[in-house]
Each structure stands twice: as C-alpha cells, then as structure tokens.
Design brief:
The protein is mainly beta and 209 residues long. It is built from one helix and twelve strands, in the order ββββββββββββα. Strands 3-4-10-7-8-9-5-11-12 form a nine-stranded mixed β-barrel. The longest helix has 12 residues.
Amino acid sequence: MKKLRRLIIGGTVLLLGAGLTVPALAAVSCGAVGEVYETNEGTYTYTMMLTWDFGGAATPDRIGLSIEHLMGCDFYDPQNPVQQDYIIVHDGYSQADGECYDTSGEPVDDIVWVGGLAMDDPDCWMPVLHLYWENTGSTIDCIPMTSDSGTFSFTSYGTPIDSQVYYGAIVIKAGEYCIVCDYEGPLPDCNNWAPIEERHWGLIKSLYK
C-alpha cells in the first residue's frame, strides 16, 4: 500500500487522498519574508527569513522554495552545466534544540542547513524547480526547534522582481508532514543573462558567418 503523506496548508492539516483533519498539527503556522541587495559582482543576494511553529508535534527536515517562474526563461537552463552560476544556494541557519555538537565534536548553537537546487522533492509534492535546504552537513546530529525562525539565502544573476506574495511557494518536510507556507518578498527575474563562456562563443560564431 502506498504510504500517504500529510499535507498542511494555511494551518489546516489534510490527509492526502482522504481529506481527514489531523488534530495534532491543526494549529501550525509558518511563513517567510525576503529581501535582496546587489553585490559588487553584478549579482543579487536574496535572503529569506522563515518562521515556523509546529506546536511541538514535528521539526523541519527539509525546506523548499519554489522558483518555477524561471522554467519558461529562454536564458536559464538549470540542466546546463555552463549556467550553474545563475543561482548559487548558500547555507541556511536556525537555532538547535538543546545541546548540539557538530560532526567534528565541537559544540554549536545553530543548525547549518545545506542548500541546493532540485527539480523534484522525493517526499513532498513539489515537482517544480526549487531551492532546498537540508540538515545533512556538519550539524546532521543536531535537532532543529519545533518553533523557531531561520535565515536562508542564495545569490543570482537574475534581477529582482518587485516584492509580492507567492502563495504556497514554500514546502517544509517535517517528519511525515508536508507543510505549505507563503513567501512575501523578491525573487530573481528572467533576464538576458548568459555566462561569459557562452557570450564569447556566440561572438566567435558571429564573426565567421
């Protein structure tokens, strides 16, 4: 029998395929706001401040932020190794629950969330281009807080879209639950960026036409 996943949207817990309310997490809340600043390298650093409260019933395992609007971009192909610098996901940070030691045995206060880029989520229904953060690095043995806030960032050549609300753009895997949250802030736009190597190759080809 296929294992059912529990999906939480807007503070209501639903059992996928059954439509049953799950009282244990009925009062959960989460949401995020973002900001952006331009760097000296012509890129933009986007920072997301995520807040969650799972009422003591779960802790976050993985955090995803959808950027599916870039899928129709003529100038960005995440499968192209030459364009890997278009979006660089940085580590995220949140507070550890109780005493915590990293993999080297040093005491630490924060969870280090390792960032990446993916096209699908193996546990939660998120079959779109998204950024993700997981506790799989130096603090893998540490436990996140069930109610906390964290900072998650990435750098992109994409110029910012004006801040707006992206409903359901965030999916948090927390144990057997998949919790959907809204994000309010800027995201990278689809602009005419192309990596230096690609621009130079295009120029060389044009000279020999």
